[in-house]
Structure formats: structure tokens, C-alpha cells
Amino acid sequence: MEETTKRAALVTGSSRGIGRAVAERLAADGFDVCVNCSSEAGLPAAQELADALAAAHGVRAMALAANVADPAAATALVEGAFEAFGRLDVLVNNAGITRDGLLARMKDEDFDAVIDVNLKGTFNCCRAAAQRMMKQRYGRIVNVSSVVGVAGNAGQANYAASKAGVIGLTKAIAKELAGRNITANAVAPGFIETDMTDALSEKQRAAITERIASKRLGAPEDVAALVAFLAREEAGYVTGQVVCVDGGMSL
Ligand code: NAP
Questions:
Q1: Ligand 1, atom 39: nearest CA belongs to which residue?
Q2: What is the mean pLDDT of the chain?
Q3: Does ligand 1 have an atom closer than 6 angstroms to the CB of 37?
Q4: Per DSSP, what are the bridge partners of residue 37?
Q5: Is ligand 1 within 6 A of the CB of residue 250?
Q6: Helix (H, G, I), strand (E, B) or coil at 63
Q7: Global model pTM greater than 0.85
Q8: Is 159 among the residues known to form the active site?
């Protein structure tokens, strides 16, 4: 599926997992792509991915390290992508972390860290990108939430709050930006096989699989396919939505 004219994308947290699959899919769809990782340590791998995308798909691709929780770094990231490509059509806010624990024992720093990356980081990038997109009168923002942000999950008060916050943020900015031809949607993955879910024991994995109508955990590519649709020009009448990609787990 070759995208036509609107073709520069930034995917936060795209050095691994779901973000990487999204970057790969958008490049395959013809987008120039900016790959992002949280720190300089991840930059060689992120640059390797960018080089591979450019070689495989004939697009422009670059890598930038930035901690999205830091407003100045997030703004520099968005501006870096805009300057490199001369426009910014798609922002995928995918960077995210977990610091799981039961409520009674959850440390302040674990609550704050998760909110700072998952929610504030999404806000930081949306704010910076919206300024460019409003001038362009075009944009597609896709925020990665979670089914946990919709339904909650024991042991993830911080993560659930951050992902529910992402949904509220998405709906608010969808209303604010729609008049400028900018959409904002949230995707809510279920259990997807990445480093984030690697820690699950075989027993936990079997119990989770049993709850999923499709009887399998998701792959990063399952999420990327949905993000790729919402990133397209033709998805312009879809905004403010939360779309689950969970194999029917939340049914
Ligand atoms: P992952 O494999 O742990 O990868 C996380 C990515 O985010 C990495 O590229 C990481 O970069 C980046 N990142 C972390 N903190 C960052 C920061 N402060 N600034 C910039 N980048 C940062 O995670 P994943 O499973 O692919 O999850 C991706 C997104 O999907 C997250 O928002 C997550 O909450 C959401 N999600 C995942 C699942 C699941 O089952 N896996 C389910 C629902 C939602 P570094 O390599 O530099 O650390």
C-alpha cells in the first residue's frame, strides 16, 4: 500500500518491540521515518534500523535519541524530525514503560516514572508536533494506550492510570485539532509479545492465552497494521477513537 503525498513520520520508542514494527510498517508504506530510543546507549541499534529501512524501502530514515518525558528533549525530537524531512505528517506516541506493583507497596518514584514517560511524554510530543501540524493543516496522531487503560489491571495502578490518561488526552486533542485536518486516535493493545511481556511465566502466559478469543498473544505487527491504517490520509474521518487490538480479549 503506497502512501501518496503525506509521508513523514516520527515513531517514539521505536528501537524495539511494537514501535519498531510500526516504524518498519510505515517505511514499507512509503513514509520517511524517524526512529527514536530513550538514550544515547540505544542509538547505534536505532541507527542500524533506520539504515535498514532506508535500504529496504527507498525512504529517508533517521534515528534520534530523546527521553520523551523531558519536555525540552521531546520538542527537540519533533523539531529534529521536522527539519530532516521538511514536514511531519504522522506522530506515533509509542514510548512506554512499566513499573508494576500492588497499590499498598507502590513507591512514589515508580508511580511518577510511569506517568512521566507514558502520559507526560505523549503530551510533550503531541504539543510539539501539533504546532507543526497546525501550520501544515494536516496531521495524523496515533497514541499507544493499552487495554489496561480501559479496563484496569491489578498490580498496574500507575500503568493503568497513565494509559487511561492517554485516552483522555487523545479525545481532548482530537476535538481541538479536527478543524485543522489533524486526527488523533488511540490504539489499545492487549498482550503483545515484546520485551515488556517477556517476564511472564509459562503459567501466566497460558492463563492469559485462555482469556483471549483468538487463543494467541499478539505480535507487534498486529498493532502496526492498525497504526498504519490510522496514519493514512484516507483515515481522515476517524478521530478521537480508542481501537483495541487484543485478539478479542476485551470482549
Ligand atoms: P518495549 O519492547 O519495552 O519497548 C519500549 C520502547 O520504548 C523502546 O524502544 C524504548 O527505548 C522506548 N522508551 C522507553 N522509555 C522511553 C523514553 N523515556 N523516551 C523514549 N523512548 C522510550 O515495549 P513494547 O511492549 O513494544 O510497548 C510499546 C508500547 O505499547 C508501550 O507504550 C506499551 O505501554 C504499549 N503496550 C504494550 C503491550 C504489550 O503487551 N507489549 C500492551 C499494551 C500496550 P529504549 O530501547 O531506548 O529503552
A1: 192
A2: 96
A3: yes
A4: 65
A5: no
A6: strand
A7: yes
A8: yes
